[in-house]
Automatic annotation (TrEMBL):
Organism: Algoriphagus halophytocola
Family membership: Belongs to the glycosyl hydrolase 43 family.
Keywords: Glycosidase, Hydrolase
Pathway: Glycan metabolism; L-arabinan degradation
Full protein name: Family 43 glycosylhydrolase
Length: 346
C-alpha cells in the first residue's frame, strides 16, 4: 500500500463516512438506485402485501410465453420493492364456479392470521363475470378457493370485476367495478358474501378501485382509459377524496367522481416514445422507513409493449408519490425512466 492509501485508510478508521457515502460504495449488493421496470415480463393489475420484512406481489393470470410460461395468479417477493424474485403460482388450480374465464386483478390482504385473495373471474366481454375469494395461511399460498362472493347478475352491477377489500370500524367491505360504476358493499363477518345495500361511489369512467386513508380523508384511486392496446393504451390513474368511505368523492377541482370527466391525474403515459403507455391499476401504497410513499402499478414500454405470443407485456413500475396541497401524484405525472433513489427499507 502506498502512503496515500495508508493515509486514506487511517482517516476512514478514525472518521467513518456518512451513511449515504458509505452506502454508495457498499459492496454488499444493496440497491441504492433503480430504474423502471422493477419486474418484467408481466405482472398486470398488481396487488401487494407485506409480511415480516418481505413484500409479496400478485398479478393477473397470464401466459408469459417464452419469457416465463403460464402463471395462474403469479406471486413474486422482494425486501425492497426493487429486486423481485418469482415464487410461483399462488393457486394450485383454477376455481371452478364458472365454466371458463381468467383469474384477473387479485386483491390480497392479511385478515387476522390468514391472507384473503379476492379475485375477478371473467372472459373479455363476459355477460356475467364475478368476484371470488381464496384464502391461504401463508402469503405465498397456496390460496384455497372459497367460491363465488357474487356475480354481476346477483349483485346487479354489470362487469363486476376488480375487487378491493378494506376493513373499517370492525367491519369488512368490498369495493369493485369496471366502467359500469364503482360500488361499495359491506361483507358478512366471514368476508364470503355481500351484506346490506350496495352504494355507488364513482361513475362509468373508472375501474380498479383502491382506497388509501390519509389526513382525515379516504383517497379513491381508479384507472380510466384502455388497459390493453399495447403502445396505444390510454390507461391512467385518477384520484378523488372524501371524508367518508361511502363518499361523496370529489377531485381536486371539486368535481364529483360520479361525473364522467372527473378525477385528478396521478400518473399517465410518458410523452416520450421511449417511455411507457397505459400506466394504471395501481397496487397498495407502501410507505418506507423515511415516510416516503411509493406506488406500484403496471405499464407497457412503448418500444416493447407485447410478448411474442401477443400478450400485453404489462411490466411492474415503481415511483414515489409526491403530496402537493393534500393531493397525490407521481413526479411529472408520468412513469420515471431514469435512475431513481430506491425506497429505504429495514
Amino acid at each position: 500500500m502506498n502512503i496515500l492509501g495508508f493515509l486514506l485508510l487511517s482517516i476512514y478508521s478514525f472518521f467513518p463516512p456518512h451513511k449515504e457515502f458509505a452506502e454508495s460504495f457498499s459492496s454488499t449488493g444493496d440497491t441504492i438506485t433503480y430504474t423502471n421496470p422493477v419486474f418484467e415480463p408481466v405482472l398486470a393489475d398488481p396487488t401487494v402485501v407485506k409480511f415480516g420484512n418481505e413484500f409479496y406481489a400478485y398479478g393477473t393470470e397470464d401466459n408469459w410465453g417464452e419469457e416465463g410460461g403460464y402463471h395462474l395468479v403469479p406471486v413474486i417477493k422482494s425486501k425492497d420493492l426493487v429486486n423481485w424474485e418469482v415464487v410461483g403460482n399462488s393457486m394450485d388450480k383454477k376455481p371452478d364456479w364458472k365454466e371458463r374465464g381468467g383469474i384477473w386483478a387479485p386483491d390480497v390482504s392479511q385478515v387476522g392470521d390468514q391472507f384473503y385473495m379476492y379475485y375477478s373471474f371473467s372472459t373479455w366481454g363476459d355477460p356475467n363475470p364475478g368476484v371470488g375469494l381464496a384464502i391461504s395461511e401463508k402469503p405465498e399460498g397456496p390460496f384455497v378457493d372459497q367460491g363465488k362472493v357474487f356475480d354481476s347478475k346477483e349483485i346487479g352491477v354489470a362487469n363486476s370485476i376488480d375487487p378491493f377489500y378494506i376493513a373499517e370500524n370492525g367491519k369488512k367491505y368490498l369495493m369493485w367495478g369496471s366502467f359500469h360504476g364503482l360500488f361499495l358493499t359491506e361483507l358478512t363477518a366471514d368476508g364470503k358474501k355481500p351484506e346490506g345495500q350496495k352504494i355507488q361511489v364513482a361513475g362509468n369512467h373508472l375501474e380498479a378501485a383502491y382506497i388509501y386513508k390519509r389526513g382525515g380523508y379516504y383517497y379513491l384511486f381508479g384507472s380510466a382509459g384502455t388497459c390493453c392496446e399495447g403502445a396505444n393504451s390510454t390507461y391512467r390513474v385518477l384520484v378523488g377524496r372524501s371524508e367518508n368511505l361511502a363518499g361523496p368523492y370529489l377531485d381536486q377541482a371539486g368535481k364529483s367522481l360520479m361525473d364522467e370527466n372527473s378525477g385528478t391525474l396521478v400518473v399517465g403515459a410518458n410523452a416520450s416514445s421511449q417511455g411507457y403507455a397505459g400506466p394504471g391499476h395501481n397496487a397498495e401504497i407502501v410507505t418506507d422507513e423515511e415516510g416516503q410513499d411509493w406506488l406500484l402499478y403496471h405499464g407497457m414500454a412503448k418500444q416493447k409493449p407485447k410478448l411474442n405470443n401477443g400478450t400485453n407485456r404489462r411490466v411492474l413500475l415503481l415511483d414515489k408519490i409526491v403530496w402537493v396541497d393534500g393531493w397525490p401524484r407521481v413526479a411529472g405525472r408520468e412513469p420515471s425512466t431514469s435512475p431513481q433513489e430506491s425506497p429505504v427499507m429495514e
